[in-house]
Amino acid sequence: MGTTWSVRLDNPSMVPLEAIRAAIEGALDRVIAQMSTWEPGSRIAQFNEAPAGSRHVLEPEFAEVLDGALHWAAASGGAIDPTIGSLVSLWGFGSHASPVTHLPSPSELAAARARVGWQQLQFDGAARTITQPGGVRLDLSGIAKGFSVDRVADSLQALGLRNFLVEVGGEVRCAGRRPFGAPWRVLVEAGPQSVPVALTDMAVATSGNRWHARELDGQRWSHTIDPRTGEPVRHPLVSVTVLHPQCMHADALATVLTVLGPEDGFAFAQRHKLAALFVKEDGGRHLACATDDWAARAQVHAS
After folding, report:
1. Is the CB of residue 168 less than 8 Å from the CB of residue 24?
2. Which of 196, 192, 288, 273 shows the shortest CA–CA distance to 240?
3. Of 4-8, 25-29, 134-138, 285-289, which range is least confident?
4. Which of 34, 87, 133, 272 has a Cα-to-Cα distance from 55 of 20 to 30 A?
5. Which tens digits make up the pLDDT trace of 163-202?
6. Residues 94/85, Cβ–Cβ less than 8 Å
7. How confident is the model at residue 300 (pLDDT cuts 50, 70, 90)?
8. Structural domain spans, the chain
């Protein structure tokens, strides 16, 4: 996935460290083998190169992630879209990107957008099958990393571990409590400073425009692409952090809210009763705004 992972845990039953490490790496390897566009032989890479009309049987994990992505695509009007791969590459990101030598022309943008659209997918969740419409490139980067956190959590629970913190590339899920009963504490971005948040049995994911950017001829653009326009987001939103029991959904929703922007995203979060913290830039300052459900799920500490 091009990132790192870390796990902190309470291990009162003294499960061997190597057994824990093997379970963690096994869970991550399964996600990579299915959903990494950087692995030529992965299931998603095979689908992306498959001919039009070909039908594919997906592993349960892949089908679960795709179902989650399609759910939020429909709910948000396409603010997240698992078929966005062509646009990701066009703007210089992802495994198939070429060095950026010019901004996409209108014709290049139109060609890429023609291959994007979650409604094109014929996905049967019950049968776990999907048909390649032709030229569609799946990219699950906005949700698969969070899912990998959940899979690691599942693997730890299968070993009998109940109190742990799992982190993959900044996406986090906490279970139980730290030794001696204190909740887990996670730093959440809130502008130039971070806010400590105490979490128990909760996941947290952040999406923002400070990371993975490109620059050319004095123009800078974020890796967050709006599937509805085909272009990187350009609003003043700096970051969005979402709390959810499952990291897969926290990850996807952070992407959704970032794409929707400070006003529409906040309204969406309130409507869906999401615990979300928005940070936007306003005249050189960073302003934070939390949804009603944020305080109910986050125990925010002053220091």
Report:
1. no
2. 288
3. 285-289
4. 87
5. 999 999 889 999 999 988 899 999 887 766 788 889 999 9
6. yes
7. very low
8. 162-300
Q: Classify domain 162-300 at the CATH topology level.
A: T-fold (3.10.520)
Task: State which amino acid sits at residue 220.
Answer: R
Number of neighbours of residue 40 by Cβ within 10 angstroms = 10
Please state whether the predicted TM-score (pTM) of the whole model is above 0.85. Answer: yes
Name which of 150, 124, 118, 163 is nearest 136 in CA terms.
118
Length of the chain (residues): 303
How far apart are the C-alpha atoms of 212 and 93, rounded to whole Å? 8
Strand-pair partners of 167:
6, 172
Residue among 296, 204, 214, 199 nearest 254 (CA): 204
Q: Residue 176 has which token pair?
A: 């139980």
User: 10 Å Cβ neighbour count for 63?
Assistant: 20
Give the SS3 label for residue 168. Answer: strand
- Residue 231 and residue 224: Cα distance in Å, rounded? 9
Residue 77 tokens read as: 């009007």
Longest dimension (CA), the chain: 61
